[in-house]
Amino acid sequence: MFFRLNVLQIALPPLRERKQDIPVLAGHFIERFCVNEGAIPKDISEATEKQLINYDWPGNVRQLENVINRAMVVSDGNVLNVENLSGLVSETETPSASSKTSRNIRIISDDGDFKSINEIEQEAMQIALDHFDHNITQAAKVLGMAKSTFYKKMKNVQNN
């Protein structure tokens, strides 16, 4: 059956080669997020649209969808701004208007040993806290964990 269906092959170039599709796809993902989550639709600022277009999208359309979904979660107003993309779209690959600096998490410690998952997670939590000026709600959201879980993990670190 596959060979019968495989008669017509569709070659779809990667998203980085279809820059004109990015605003349309971003709008579609915003609409879909609003329908699924019952959220209020948001516009995209010109600077944000420009940043999305200039990014290379190594994760293709799925990465764009994830970035839009996370930006929708962390944004407070009616417009998605560049600040909402900070940390989601790499600042080293895309010029950013955000004053926040990008930080990478290393999985190998200075002595050459691999860090534990807990150490990496704690570092990610600290970066998120620093990025959001110690706003635990936003830090937890961007990391995809419940605020209560974030608090518990922080407490465990303080007790150790």
- Strand residues, percent: under 5%
Strand tally is 2
Distance between the termini: 59 Å
Lateral arrangement of strands in the main beta sheet: 1-2
CATH topology category name of the largest domain: Helicase, Ruva Protein, domain 3
Residue share in helix: 40-55%
Radius of gyration: 19 Å
| Number of helical elements | 8
- Count of domain modules: 2
What multimeric state do the chains show? single chain
- Reading the helices and strands in chain order gives HHEHHEHHHH
- Largest β-sheet summary: 2 strands, parallel
| SS-derived structural category | mainly alpha
Low-confidence stretches: 91-99
Please report the first level of CATH classification, the CATH class of the largest domain. Mainly Alpha
CATH architecture of the largest domain: Orthogonal Bundle
- Overall 3D form: globular
Give the integer mean of the pLDDT values. Answer: 83
Description:
This protein has a two-stranded parallel ribbon with strand order 1-2. It has 8 helices and 2 strands; from the N terminus they run H-H-E-H-H-E-H-H-H-H. Helix 2 packs across helix 4, helix 6 packs across helix 7 and helix 7 crosses helix 8. Helix content is 52%, strand content 2%. It has 160 residues and is mainly α. The protein is globular, with a radius of gyration of 19 Å. The chain has 2 domains: 13-95, Helicase, Ruva Protein, domain 3, CATH 1.10.8; 105-160, Homeodomain-like (Arc Repressor Mutant, subunit A).
